[in-house]
Amino acid sequence: MVNPILIIGITLGSAFLIGIVQAFRPRWTGWIFYPTLVFDFLASAVNLYGFLSGSIGKPIMVKIGGFPPPVGINLLVGKAEAALGTLIFAVALLGAYHWGRRGFPQPQGKIMVLFLLLALGAAGISFTGDFFNLFVFVEITSIASYGLVASSRREEALEAAFKYMVVGSISSTFILLGVVFLYKATGSLNMLDIGGKIAGGFSSQVLGLISLLILAGLLVELEVFPINGWALDIYQGADPVVVALLAGAAVKAFYLVYLKTASYLALPSFFKLSLIFGGGTYLVSQFFAWRQENARRLLGYSSVGQLGLLILAGGLLLSPSLPASSRAMVLAAVVLLILNHSFSKSSLFLLADNVKGEKLEDWKGVLSSSPVFRFSFTTSVFSVAGLPPFPGFWAKLLLVMAAARFSPWLVALILAGALAEVVYYFRFFYLVSLGDKKAEVGNNLLAPLVASLFLVGAVPLAYKMAADKLSLTLPGGVLVLLGLSLLVYLLGFSRLLQWLASLGLVAYGAYLLLPFLKADLSGFFLGLILAGAAVLLLATYPGAKNLSSSFYPAYLVVVFSMAGLVLSTTWFSLFVFWEIMSWASFLLINMGRGKKAAWIYAVLSAAGAYAMLGGISLLPSPYISSVKSPGPWLALLLSLGFLVKMATVPLHIWARDAYGESPDDFTPLLSGIMSKMGVFGSALVFLYVVINLSSRSSFNYLLGWAGVLTAFFMTLLAVFQEDLKKLLAYSSVAQVGYILLGLALFTPLGWTAALYHTVNHFFFKGLLFVAAAGIVYRVGTSYLPHMGGLIRRMPLTFFASLLAVIALAGVPPLSGFAGKWLLYTALIEKGWIFIAVVAFLASTLAFLYSFKILHAVFLGQLQEENCEVREVPIPVAVVEIILLIPLVVLGAFPRLILDPITRVLGKVTALGIPDLKYTKTLGVVSRLGHWNALFLMVFFAGAFILALIFFALTSARVKLVGQMDVGYSGEVPRSPEDLHFGYGMYDHFRRAVKWLIYPLATRVWRGIYEALGAVAEMGRRIYTGDTNTYAAYVIGISLLILLIFKG
Amino acid sequence: MAFFVSSILLILIGLYAVLVKRNIMKIVIGLSLMDTGVNLLIISLGFIRGRTAPIINTRDLLVNTSSKVVDPLPQALVLTAIVIGVAVTAVALSIVMLMYSKKKTLEIDEYKELKW
Amino acid sequence: MRKWFALALLIVLGFFLAEIASSFPFGQEKWGVSKHYVDRGIEENRGANLVTSIVVNYRGFDTLGEVTVLFLAATALAFLLSTCRCRRKYRRWDASLILKTASETLYPLLILFGAYIFIHGHLTPGGGFQGGTVIASAVMLMLLSYFSFHPNHRALSTTEGLAGLAFVLIGFAGLVWGGSFLANNILPLGQWNRLFSAGVIPLIYVAVGFKVGAELSGLITDMLKATKEEE
After folding, report:
1. Domain containing B91 — which CATH number?
2. How crowded is residue C176: how many other Cβ atoms within 10 Å of its Cβ?
3. Which of A125, A281, A579, A593 could form a disulfide with A137 if both were Cys (CB 3.0 to 4.6 A apart)?
4. ipTM
5. In angstroms, how far is CA A1003 from the centroid of its own chain?
6. Would the pLDDT of A973 be above 70?
7. Which of A848, A817, A836 has the alpha carbon at shortest distance from A708?
8. Does C10 sit within 8 Å of A147, measured CB to CB?
9. The model's pTM
10. Beta carbons of B41 and C24 less than 8 Å apart
């Protein structure tokens, strides 16, 4: 144990000493400054360790002057204070190192004194057990802050410092008056003493007003809305290092003392006060940041918002009606939030110090400038936005679960704020990752790196805390695999090595998860994931590709989080893996060309996931299989996330560009397997939630329509798409729409169709996307009119694509037919005639784009610039062949997959046994009819071979001409595009259905975004920048607090 | 009572300057006035009618002291508060001097670069 | 408009403050923890001036903070104004003969008086802060009288630093020999109402006196220097 007075005394002594040394040997000041901070940090850390390990049992009470309280002043350092002290000095050390490396402004001894005393003041605020002493430390902190904020001597900094000074003086006047009145009312200044008196029944008529006066003063320092204009100005105008120290450390001390004061002065209205101001600040700030163009101010809004969330959590803690278990959750959440915010915000502000210019556009291209910058920035943004696996994520989880015991509206508020945060942080992220050119950034990156490594290091701790409080268990094997996946990042020097390691890891994962490969729904999807990932990973052979070093780690994380997802038994676990999968896939999509698409994907994913979390928080039991008597809203909330991943209309707006512009090596996984996680989730929802719904049939019918409309519209859009990958994207979404339709039927046959199609879609769409990746790799574009005639350069790929397209179109003899047949049979059996009609229509339309794929890519004339392209790389070809086989085999023997599905569905007792029979001759029989797959296969194969022989014999008569060797009626084609058959294909048809393909959903979503943005833009004009006005806000709000909450 | 009223008035006058005056120096003066008002209020809270200063320099004060002197604690607090007020004013003035040296004006309207 | 709004706000604020203040009847006896200081102050500290006893001993930690605040302010001001181009056109000036003569006469007397105040802080009204302020006013008088008067900056810094260190060290001495930070029992308490009494209180107040004197002098010197033409 280190006596806390040593921290304060030695720091003060050092500060005085620096004053002397500065006068004689200014260069030597650092020799006092840094060791003092190190000592402070170590001393606090030792105490914290003592508390955590239990060697210090009760709070350390330091009686200054030897007088027992309340006569003398005392310091009271418990676990929270020790932790906060450690945090404060850790952040201070980072800031000091960073500043020292950049060079302190001269005279440096003076700035060191201010810096040291700011940290000391913050520590003192948290340590002290005396109200007047608190006021003294508040003033030390404030005055040091005024000086430090002004320290850059820029005009903005001075302006911010002045505003802070005016507002800060008013706030500390309130605190001082309150403290003196408190003395007058209670006869004491000691916190414990006063707290004891009040708890013991002491009351006074004006005690409420007095307490509110102190709390109002503290709330000003806590930057609550709307009295935080000054704080935003500091974030924008002051030196980023100072801001890191203020936001990362000082303000947290104010938070702690706010909580302490409120609990000592224990007025019943305090929790409402905190909930209202905390919640309001949180929501409003996250929202006001939407259109912010100044990076530092954006970070400022975020800080204010996070602080609001903390105050809200504090309100929960102060609430008398919170059950003890929820209390523990909130406490854990508060600890994690503070940790998370302090380090991520320090890291971000210190990074901002390395970027020239403050505007968001000045940040363009910084991510490609240095891997350290990229790592720190990504980590910090992920943590601060509360994404897995960082502490903020677990904090959010804990807080939401605790708030749910309180009021669902509170949950809604927390999640709405979290979503708003994702919106602007990932707008920031997408703007930052835009642009190919490298931006110039400073190389003062060690401190932010350390801060972000801290965040990474805190992950196990955070997980453990959350898991304890929520009794959350995640499959251990999957966690090990996820950890190993991240280690692949360390092999970043060689892509080939990373590829090999990834293959090995997937194999190891398959070995590890083998016991779970049972004949049930989880096992079915697990098999799909592991086998599919192994095959698709093979095709990502790096070769000379320009892959990011984080490609393989992220890829593996997606794969293993999917494995964890399907193995989940609780909604928590499902949600955690769902989020990990979403955000890892976001990173992958962001590596591609479509940065904005990645942003939209991130926002919609977050919206879906938070809806899911909101739904989960309303459930009485976390077990997936034990949802009792849900309401329709609950079912909708739980399924929203899955619908987003399946890109069901009208949540599909992310899909085209996210698929189309994601890295070519990732798209097969995204379409083939990841979209199926939406299917898995929806299956769970249908099976365990919707089934208990009183309005079950109408809910199913509604989702059935959603599925079929998705299929219809996406097919229609695919027909007119001129980009190969985007066309496949639409097609993929449409196919998943069929699967949703099958699930929504909720009959054994419907589910058989859905699961069959799930597997089959993986085969043919995986194949098509792998082929597309190969083609794009060779041709260098995904734009259809730049292809054509590739059949002669890539015969194998053509053949594979041909078979895949036949399977896609759902015609005999290949595997697609069985799926379509089963689905239609199920639809007719169920009697959903209108839906069946639309589904038929969509399938017919699918022929149009199926043909377009073949025609525009492979048929027609070869473009001149493509004359030299070669067949796809060997790994891709191998994968094409691997995926080709099941298409044919399943076409002939659909029972190979239908049998396992029947066994799986046999376990799903709620559904009943599929009414399917198989004849001896390998045919499939249902009530409505039957067909013989093997016969069809033989018949069509024979026809195919006959046609092949015919064309082989007649090919001698075909004359090949050059592409531009045409001329009719004197018209000269201007460009090869004009001659390409795929260009403007179906234009006449397009004109006919123009009204159907109006991008309504996109417009509506954009309209909502813009409208909210405009409201935010208007709203934040209340921060006029005028000092008088800010002072008036402070007084006005304080009076409001006094008026409303005195009762 | 007059002490309470006048000190509160002093606080309000200071705040009025902070809220209304457009000149930076006047705002600083307002803050300073507010401080003075607060200090006066604290002192008058410790006053007890008919008592002497809490300095025990005669023997008769040594016995039964608490019925003969005013409350010394508010005076001690005020001492601290005064010094802190001085410190804040000093820093405020230095910031104002720097501000003036950059823009050559003391009008608060000229210092509204940071907003929204 | 702004004025009326401000007035409305202030009236409400005034109402609240008055409501709180009027709940404590003016001039009535109401002891809290300070009853202990009044009744047992002499016994525990021997300082005749109870306010000093509280400021330096019972709540000495506040005073350490207070000294720090002043130090901070002086540091921040010196830092901010060190590069300030706040200079106006000043001519070299000296004050009138009357002021100069009076200042020269008063200067040592004021310093002496200040020292008297802080040395007797535990016996009479006043103390380190008051004495220090008087000393600084002497410096101010000289600054007003002579253009070229410059207190030695290094001497001021050293004084304030050493005085601050002395405060902290006395505190630590208490921790080592007296069992707690700023403990008063490390020196004999002496007899009531004598100069050498009250343990470490006079020592601390002397240190504070030096510190405040040096700091305030430095403060005004820095401010004045920032506005003066370079010599």
Report:
1. 1.10.287.3510
2. 11
3. A125
4. 0.97
5. 24
6. no
7. A836
8. no
9. 0.94
10. no
